[in-house]
UniProtKB/TrEMBL annotation:
It is a multi-pass membrane protein. It comes from Pandoraea anhela. The keyword Transport applies. This is Zinc transporter ZitB. Residues 1-32 are annotated as: Disordered. Belongs to the cation diffusion facilitator (CDF) transporter (TC 2.A.4) family. SLC30A subfamily. The keyword Disulfide bond does not apply. Signal peptide: none annotated. Pfam families: Cation_efflux, ZT_dimer.
């Protein structure tokens, strides 16, 4: 089919000015990448140290709520390590084999983290049911001290991550992990206090199930979002029907647009491909630039691949395809 196809990374102008062909995205993602990476590194150290303390404390005190929280912390530490590695490798340039670079590692890390959380939550629930059948003696004081220290560590990690980029699925995953952890530590403190004051041991497995439910909720959100990106799903902010209607209504240089595909490389980096037919008397290049500018300003899409089609040329005709 006769066409003019053109591709641009140029974020600011949508003109495909070849000067910054490869650098349209570099600016802001790298700046946030460095601080996000640092934040994740600090949070990892905090969580990893307290994870060990909680595991030891949980075993010594016999508390499942503490072990549940420690289990969550293990996944947290792994999540943060994954996230750190993903951001680290994500900065590598694209190669001929990986033309989009390593950015997707972040999404993959988020997906693996979410799946791991499901397993941990399942283990906690099974263990809690076993505890109801055969209660274990619990040392409330040890449990309280360890849970309180764990809560402080989580609050510190939470504050560190809180300033990060919330749009980034990876950072959101890490932040949610730590938020779930804080609730886990709080639940362990409540359980310890109840055991110290009333001696009612079933509160421990009861609250550990509560923690498991929280873990499952955050895990489901992360798995769903990351799987959607891995399956090349259309981003929430980009509805092909809406894009078609918007371009045909506002860009006078085109007569029609079709074959619209939208997907994401990472949670905040979207791509679009589409075919467009220029309006009568408008050059393919002018129509294309107009479409690109509209996609950049209205839909915040920095990378659009547009194939221009000449309505007058049928598939069988001998019009030559002009490549820009």
């Amino acid at each position: 089919m006769p066409n003019v196809s053109h591709d641009t990374h140029d974020h600011d102008h949508g003109h495909g000015s070849h000067g910054h062909h490869h650098h349209g995205h570099a600016g802001h993602s790298h700046a946030s990448g460095v601080t996000d990476q640092k934040r994740i590194g600090i949070a990892f150290v905090l969580i990893a140290v307290f994870m060990v303390i909680e595991i030891v404390g949980g075993i010594l005190s016999g508390s499942l709520a503490l072990l549940a929280d420690a289990g969550h912390m293990v996944s947290d530490a792994a999540a943060l390590a994954f996230s750190w590695i993903a951001i680290h490798y994500g900065k590598r340039p694209a190669t001929l084999q990986l033309t989009y670079g390593y950015k997707r590692l972040e999404v993959l890390a988020a997906f693996v983290n979410g799946c791991a959380l499901f397993v941990i939550a399942g283990w906690i629930v099974i263990e809690a049911i076993r505890r109801f059948a055969e209660p274990v003696p619990i040392v409330g004081r040890t449990m309280l001290i360890v849970a309180f220290a764990g809560l402080l560590a989580n609050i510190a990690a939470f504050m560190v991550l809180h300033g990060g980029n919330r749009e980034n699925l990876n950072m959101r995953g890490a932040w949610l992990h730590v938020l779930g952890d804080m609730l886990g530590s709080a639940a362990a403190i409540v359980a310890a206090l109840v055991i110290l004051l009333t001696g009612w041991a079933p509160i421990d497995p009861l609250l550990s199930i509560f923690v498991a439910v929280i873990i499952l909720r955050s895990a489901w959100g992360i798995v769903k979002s990351s799987a959607h990106i891995l399956l090349e799903g259309t981003p929430d902010s980009l509805n092909p029907t809406e894009i078609k209607a918007d371009l045909e209504a506002t860009v006078s240089q085109v007569r029609s647009v079709h074959h619209i595909h939208a997907w994401s490389i990472t949670g905040e980096r979207h791509m679009i491909t589409l075919h467009a037919v220029p309006a009568p008397g408008v050059s393919a290049r002018d129509a294309m630039v107009a479409v690109q500018q509209r996609l950049a300003t209205r839909f915040n899409v920095e990378h659009a691949t547009i194939q221009m089609e000449d309505a007058a040329c049928g598939p069988a005709s001998s019009c030559h395809a002009r490549e820009e």
